[in-house]
Amino acid sequence: MDFMIFACPKSGTTWLQRLLSSHPQVHCAESRPFGDYFDPNIGGTVHLSVEKFVGFLMAYYSPFHPGFKEDHFKCSVTARILDQLEQEARRLTAKPIYGEKLTPFPGTARHCTRRIHDCWPNVRFVHLTRQGRDVIASGGAHHLNIRMVKTDGDARADIEKRLHERRIPDDIFDHFLGLWIEVVGAGLEAENLFDRYLHMTYESWIEDPLARAYQLFEFIGADTGDGLVERCVEAASFKALSGGRAPGEEDRNSFFRKAVSGDGQFWLSAEQKKRFEEEAGEAQQRLEMRSGK
Asked: How far is the C-alpha of 217 from the C-alpha of 53, rounded, in Å?
């Protein structure tokens, strides 16, 4: 593993994954390697980590041997699966630089950073952050769209109304509020784990994507000459990813919704804004201090 992009969901990791993989030397994947988490039905798909899958396997595969240690075996098998995925990706893409993006499942962020360090202590760790209110707004719109696919009748009409009026249900607000606080904290603490650590903000990418792309490619050891960076930025632009829309031109039903900063203020109720300040104020302050370095 050459690099790891670590962030809260809806912070721009899919954007960076497209940008990185547009480079002829770089492949950015997503295996969801670590975390004790399983949800069988998020948007019609299963959410689990490689580590959790191996845990399920252990319920059936359990060698009876005096020297067998289940925890050690589980860790070893997980590491070998991840190594095999990386080797196969290198073989298929013929790209020399391999890394992943990771948006941790709820309750797993600090476990993920520790396990990343255990497996790849020399990895180039990129901590990507986005303002919390904007994460909640983007995540809220995304989850409302997922719910709308699963419903019809009055329930669907209510979700459509919420999207139109920019109103996030409290359960979705709670989910993303807690997740943002957790992942931001784990990412900031990871600076003490990794010798090669880079903090980047979504807002700085919006402001100057070309400068940030140069910074990122140089950090992971990729070439930046011959117009490579400019072509990657263009290939991963919001216009390219959204099917032709300009940044700020909103499609509330799209995964790539708007690509602007500061939009969260229009989605949160007065009570939700108050709760954000009360519960996320410390994390926000730590993030602002780190961004100001």
From this structure: 32
